[in-house]
Amino acid sequence: MMSQAHPSTSPHAESWVFGANNPDLGLPLQHLPYCVFQSIDSNQPHLGVGIGACILDLFVCAETGLFDHIPADIVTACSFPALNPLMDLGPKAWATLRSEIQALLSTSTPLSSDRRLRTEAALVTAREAIFSAPVFIPNYTDFYSSIDHAERVGMLFRPDQPLLPNYQHVPIGYHGRTSSIVLSGTSIQRPKGQSKPVRSEAQPGFAPTTSLDYELELGLYIGQSNPLGTPIPIERASSHLFGISLLNDWSARDIQSWEYQPLGPFLGKNFATSISPWITPISALGPFRSPAAPRLHHLAESLPYLLCRSDQHAGNLNLILEVFLVSLEMKKKSIAPVRLSRVCARDLYWTPAQLIAHHTSNGCNLQVGDLLATGTISGPDHASAGCLLELTSNGTQPITLPTGESRAFLVDGDEVILRGYGEASGHPRIILGECRGTIHSG
Amino acid sequence: MMSQAHPSTSPHAESWVFGANNPDLGLPLQHLPYCVFQSIDSNQPHLGVGIGACILDLFVCAETGLFDHIPADIVTACSFPALNPLMDLGPKAWATLRSEIQALLSTSTPLSSDRRLRTEAALVTAREAIFSAPVFIPNYTDFYSSIDHAERVGMLFRPDQPLLPNYQHVPIGYHGRTSSIVLSGTSIQRPKGQSKPVRSEAQPGFAPTTSLDYELELGLYIGQSNPLGTPIPIERASSHLFGISLLNDWSARDIQSWEYQPLGPFLGKNFATSISPWITPISALGPFRSPAAPRLHHLAESLPYLLCRSDQHAGNLNLILEVFLVSLEMKKKSIAPVRLSRVCARDLYWTPAQLIAHHTSNGCNLQVGDLLATGTISGPDHASAGCLLELTSNGTQPITLPTGESRAFLVDGDEVILRGYGEASGHPRIILGECRGTIHSG
Q1: Under DSSP, is residue A373 helix (H, G, I), strand (E, B) or coil?
Q2: Rounded distance, CA A97 to CA A95, Å?
Q3: What is the DSSP letter of B17?
Q4: Distance (Å, rounded) from C-alpha A343 to C-alpha A363?
Q5: What is the DSSP string of A82-107?
């Protein structure tokens, strides 16, 4: 007997919600990203799900009995103003809730007029929403999974050995700072810091950074913990992943390059990391998977703890990601944001499952809500570089904006916008929630 | 008019509690470290203060009206089973509570017989206590503030340039992992991980670490936050520090040395960090302060944001710290733990206030309960090296235990014990809470 997909989850299913079938919004029935938001009428943040031009208020759904068919612990989790309790319930609960929401919103599900009315009452216009942090993030780890980024940055600082010997074996990562993670739209203060002395016997400088950069990244949200001392095997790593979002790991290159030896980046990074308010669940990404990236040669084949057939087959994410910039002068002249680069996440050298398996291979415990970032995502060609460090060759080859302004690094007033989407034949387009930030002087 | 110290806070004041005047316990009226503990009679963890052989149960003090003279928010904070709410109230509240506790416990304060009886009823024998985490730790940062450690480790790996050019200017630090911070006494599982291939063209190994090490450190607990974007000036940095404790940042040297380029230590560290259950408040450390360490030459003078007169005068901690080891065989033969090293924290190149000022100099926000560790504390001579990496020259010169066993690095069954104390003429001795951990196989 062939298994049959539920009608509301088929790639052809449509929603009756306004805008749900508009590919420019990228919020069809098959997407359903999560957020925490506050509407004008409400004085409390609620969990929500994006659909077309609207947000389905999960708190209201729970309160008005729309979720009476599903287990009570899921309903309780929907009333909490952060995703952590829902995450903690595990993949089966995530699937149950998603399927219930799809049934409520689908044109192909017969809905009683009463249920339809209550669902409509739980919908809020997305434009009127004010967002807050979707997840309490206990720990933040940033990886370095783009080999093109690692190689191009390495070329700038170590032309004789751009790629270090460990790169092809170890998913390189380091711990980031959770306290300075901010929501898209929060303005970013130009940090001050030490930079390398001009002459080796001089004192270093201390001033606002002159090489402020963005980093185009994907954030991976951990939905399931593991106990300290118990690694997550690669075969089960995917089930620990709840969802993804766009992330900008702002970097001060002068501070970073002076401080990072021998213990890695610190103040060059921890002044701010921006995240999108929207988290796209992993279950929405099925049509946008691609094989793990090939290894450079047979000796670079990954160690067994990083290898499993399903991950090699479809572990990467076939998502297009873009960086846009709009300067103050462009805004004044109503010039639209200019695209600085475009890259596909499928070029990442390490898959999300490999990052999880590696992170826990020493017994390190991941916690519900932990954020793992991919590191700057760059592609093989120059136009797909995910940061200015690469695009301008460390500021030596500035880029030109439509106004004629040039940029080696970011100047005050610049707004950086990260966008991303998934396209696959026979499937509706999904668009990831944007991640924005504008630089202001310290 | 001369200012007069409160009789209960003078260096000669004594407590009536059993053991309080015993210098071998190091818990006089002038110390009063905090902990969170559970007594046999209680089914809930309570905040406590160490005095002699006892713990004063602050929850019971609050419940029985002993704190009725002090502001209600302090009393409420005393009923919470972690220090964070008390920390959040700020230095004035910390001083009020400390002085009230000293008045209850001092022989020089006239106490009504009813108050004395209630205070006695709030005392628990320390030996019967089970400890839990004293603080919820939102973020953990590990520094590298011992120049002797940096230089000796540098000598092992870069004999031509042991001290990197940034060291004398930048208080080097990196973010650690909070999820794997464990309490003293928790056994430590030997982590598995990748290590450098034997030949450059071979595959790396993946196995339990063969170079498991301890690191003798002090943990500094942040009691006051700063908003994102607002640095803490060096002049006010001390007021953000609540207290200190012993900390062991376990390290797998083979994993660390293979993974750490270019983003710093990760899996070589994040499998476990042990902390003492006891936090010694900064206010107890007045007699044990010492000047900031001298700079190596005039060009290494610190930048202005790291300099202030009071910190230069008395910013360091004059505390003696020791590492002991006891092997399984030593335990079987009832041989006492052997001291591996002894060091004075006053040799640290950066003061706690400098670490705080530097950490926030880019606008990074510290949160209440954040843990900043000093990094391995080593002194100028070999016998004061704070880790086996230095003591055994990366395992090449093993040390010999009293049983005749040799140790290049830790073996399963080894227990490492960190101890520390402060001694100053005319002041009672204080002993920091121990930090222990025993290695077991993975």
Answers
A1: strand
A2: 5
A3: S
A4: 33
A5: SSHHHHHH-HHHHHHHHHHHHHHHBT
Q: Burial of B397 by CB count in 10 Å (0-12 exposed, 13-18 middle, 19+ buried)?
A: exposed
Q: Which two tokens stand for residue B36?
A: 């969170």
The verdict on a CB contact (< 8 Å) between A267 and B175 is: no
pTM for the full predicted model? 0.97
Q: What's the half-sphere exposure (Cβ side, CA atoms, 13 Å) at A172?
A: 26
Residues in B closer than 8 angstroms to A137, CB to CB, are: none
> What does the alpha-carbon distance between residue B66 and residue A391 come to, in Å, rounded to a whole number?
66
Closest partner residue to A191 (CB to CB) among B172, B301, B362 is B362
- How distant is the Cα of B199 from the closest Cα of chain A, in angstroms? 11
> What does the DSSP assignment read for A29-63?
TTT--EEEEE-TT-SS-EEEEEETTEEEEHHHHHH
Report the SS3 class of residue A76.
helix
Task: State how far residue B56 is from chain A, nearest Cα, in angstroms.
Answer: 32
Nearest to B412 by CA among B189, B197, B111: B189
Predicted pLDDT at A7:
56
Q: Test B262 with A264 for CB contact under 8 angstroms.
A: yes
User: Which stretches within A366-415 are classed as H helix?
Assistant: 388-391
Spell out which residues of chain B touch residue A412, defining contact as CB-CB under 8 Å.
none
In Å, how far from its chain's centre is CA B367?
Answer: 18
Chain A / chain B CB contacts < 8 angstroms:
191
B262 cis-preceded (ω within 30 degrees of 0): yes
What is the residue type of A36?
Answer: V
Chain B residue nearest residue A209, CA to CA: B362
Give me the DSSP letters along A282-312: GGG-GGGEEPPPPPSSGGGPPPGGG--HHHH
**pLDDT tens-digit map of A147-176:** 999 999 999 988 998 999 999 999 999 999
Residues B307-318: tens digit of each pLDDT: 999 999 999 999
pLDDT of residue A2: 38
Which stretches within B52-139 are classed as H helix? 58-63, 72-78, 84-88, 91-105, 113-121
Q: Is the pLDDT of residue B326 over 50?
A: yes
- Cβ neighbours for A9, distance < 8 A, ≥ 6 positions apart: A29, A30, A99, A102
Q: Are A337 and A330 in contact (CB under 8 A)?
A: yes
The phi, psi pair for B272, rounded to 5°, reads -175, 140
Are B315 and B71 in contact, with CB atoms under 8 Å apart?
A: no
* Residues in contact with A393: Cβ distance below 8 Å, sequence separation at least 6, in sequence order: A156
Q: What is the mean pLDDT of chain A?
A: 95
Chain CA centroid to CA B54, Å: 21
**Residue tagged active-site, from B46, B149, B240, B358:** B149
Contact residues for A4 (Cβ-Cβ < 8 A; gap 6+): none
Domain boundaries, chain B: 7-132, 156-440
- Kindly provide the ipTM of the predicted complex, given to two decimals: 0.96
Calculate the alpha carbon distances from A122 to A49, A181, A290, B44 in Å: 11, 30, 36, 41
Dihedral-angle region of residue B286 (phi above 0 means left; psi in -120 to 50 means alpha; beta otherwise): alpha
Which chain B residue has the Cα nearest residue A260? B263
pLDDT at residue A5 above 50? no
Model confidence over A331-386: pLDDT tens digits? 999 999 999 999 999 999 999 999 999 999 999 999 999 999 999 999 999 999 99
Other beta carbons within 10 Å of A422? 25
Please confirm, yes or no, whether A46 is among the known catalytic residues: no
Q: The tokens of A407 are what? A: 């940029």
**C-alpha closest to that of B277 among B31, B50, B122, B94:** B50
Architecture per CATH, domain B7-132, reads as Roll (2.30)
Classified by CATH at the fold level, domain B156-440 comes out as Fumarylacetoacetate hydrolase; domain 2 (3.90.850)
